Amino acid sequence: MGILFLENIHQIAQEYLERQGYRVEVLSGALGPDELAKALEPVHILGVRSKTTVSTEALARAKNLLAIGCFCIGTDQVDLEAAQHMGVPVFNAPFSNTRSVAELTMAEVVMLSRKASQRSLELHSGLWQKSAKGCFEVRGKTLGIVGYGNIGPQVGLLAEAFGMSVLFYDINRKLPLGTARATTTLNELLEQSDFVTMHVPDTEATRGMIGNSELRSMRVGSYLLNLSRGSVVDLDALSVSLKDGHLAGAAIDVFPSEPESNGARFNSCLLGLQNVILTPHIGGSTEEAQRNIGVEVSESILGFIERGSTAGAVNFPEVDLPFNTESHRVLNIHRNVPGVLGQINRLVSDSGANITGQVLSTNREIGYMIMDVSPELSRSIKEEIDQLDANIRTRLLF
Fold first, then answer.
1. Measured on CA atoms in the order 241, 217, 147, 101, is the torsion positive or negative?
2. Among the options 61, 85, 114, 281, which is catalytic?
3. Is 188 a catalytic residue?
4. Domains and CATH numbers, the chain
5. Which of 258, 335, 393, 395 is catalytic?
6. Residues 6 or more apart whose Cβ sits within 8 Å of residue 212
7. Which pTM was predicted?
8. Is 10 a catalytic residue?
9. 281 catalytic, yes or no?
10. How far apart are CA 18 and CA 27, in angstroms?
11. Catalytic residue from among 229, 307, 328, 334
């Protein structure tokens, strides 16, 4: 089985799979579209981080591909719909680096409020500029969290430990942690917050959600932080708000366009602005987070390879079934049209095989079934299921 890891995925992931008897090929960097499409032709499992774009075109050439592991939180670098139609589940690590992002967020809140990064740059240039003007404690201030998913609640709890009040806005109803309070609209949060921090995914609804109008709704002298996705904030509008003094500062960790490798040149309209902290997409870049991500995604991949489990897949029905060592396991992915399960069960019944376990789950587009059957008839059953009109992919586990 061909397993390819790109982009310096933590070594623990490679070690985890190799201990189970698999061989993993590792490349340190991302691959461009043509390189990736060619590299995918013999690959069964692909592991990426955030720099590799897995497009429809690349997937079309990946005839052997069984699963994709995104060793990060986001999955917007993968065409999830195309992968689903090919019968390829995509796994990620939605929880493993949340603490790392939350800690950096709070560190930047304090640094912005004290103008500490600005003072540090001045001192590095040989200028001693000790001043309390425009510098404040964060205690008693209000932090507004946009996106209250996996990271937002942790940021809120840390902020409360600093003595801050916490507001949050999310398009879905969420249970508040601590004393955090939900706002009914984004503007309500913007108008009431001294600090606004973004923790949302990259979707059609979030792209450009903080533009000139939203920035002008924020309090004069407030601060904006974005450690989510580069598409969320209009940086040109943010630059204007910083230059004219409407905002007192900003911390930006993600950008609409980011260099593909370390050492590359970086350019942004925010370069050189005072009290603006720029970091190179390091919100989740801690040894602890990368190790946890390596283990979490590798476990998901192994569960799919060896049991057919899709627990944690972002583009697939979640199905799992305890493995029965006395049976063979048929894994079937099919288009979600009426009657498929009935057709499969009739095939098994006509063959005289015994079903010792079965589970099916569907979403709007596809159905995924795990079925344990008699070992002596499993191959013929698999071959017959392969012939069904709705079949996308059928795999047999021993």
1. positive
2. 281
3. no
4. 1-97+286-315 (3.40.50.720), 98-278 (3.40.50.720), 317-398 (3.30.70.260)
5. 258
6. 234, 237, 240, 241
7. 0.83
8. no
9. yes
10. 16
11. 229
